[in-house]
Design brief:
single chain, 186 residues, five-stranded parallel beta sheet
Length: 186
């Protein structure tokens, strides 16, 4: 079984920084979910229009496909992805079959075993980070992301890490969860 880690949180929480650092340190593949947004989604966000479920579902299904491919190749991977709602995380784990009323034509594949790493921190720290970077996601949309966020909870496979720690400290906490075997207990 390949280890799959999704570093999640609102825009500006450090997903790409932490995810790419973890992947480089572990010798794993790294994917940034932002690279998989459609041009329409990027345009909406640049115009300050929050994405809705209809915008996100095809994107999440594509990301599930990326993770499924890595798992089938037995390649460990890290994905930086907002994954703000529980339903979004279900799509990452189960693919299109996680969407209510979407019955697959073929037998379902087994769910992916994913460790979700929730980078959590206060609005003001994240807002100041967003103001300092050049990104298609304007800082004004941060409030909508906090409003949408459904922090992971049991029975989801997750850890919550404070983004107020340094990147090496955050990665060490993730590594210790993985190496202690806590990340993938059934």
């Amino acid at each position: 079984m390949a280890l799959l880690v999704v570093v999640m949180g609102v825009s500006g929480s450090g997903k790409t920084t932490v995810g790419s650092y973890l992947a480089a340190k572990m010798g794993w593949r790294f994917y940034d979910a932002d690279d998989y947004h459609s041009l329409e989604n990027k345009k909406k966000m640049a115009e300050g229009i929050p994405l809705n479920d209809k915008d996100r579902i095809p994107w999440l299904c594509a990301l599930h496909g990326v993770l499924r491919r890595e798992e089938s190749l037995r390649q460990a991977a890290v994905l930086a992805c907002s994954a703000l709602k529980k339903m979004y995380r279900r799509v990452l784990v189960s693919g299109p079959s996680a969407i209510e009323g979407n019955q697959p034509e073929q037998p379902e594949e087994a769910e992916l075993k994913i460790l979700f790493v929730h980078l959590d921190g206060p609005f003001n720290i994240i807002a100041s980070r967003l103001e300092k970077r050049d990104h298609f996601m304007p800082p004004e949309l941060l409030k909508s992301q906090f409003d949408t966020l459904e922090p992971p909870s049991t029975p989801e496979n997750f850890i919550t890490v404070s983004l107020e720690k340094s990147v090496p400290e955050i990665v060490l906490e993730i590594e210790s969860t993985i190496f202690q075997g806590e990340a993938f207990l059934d």
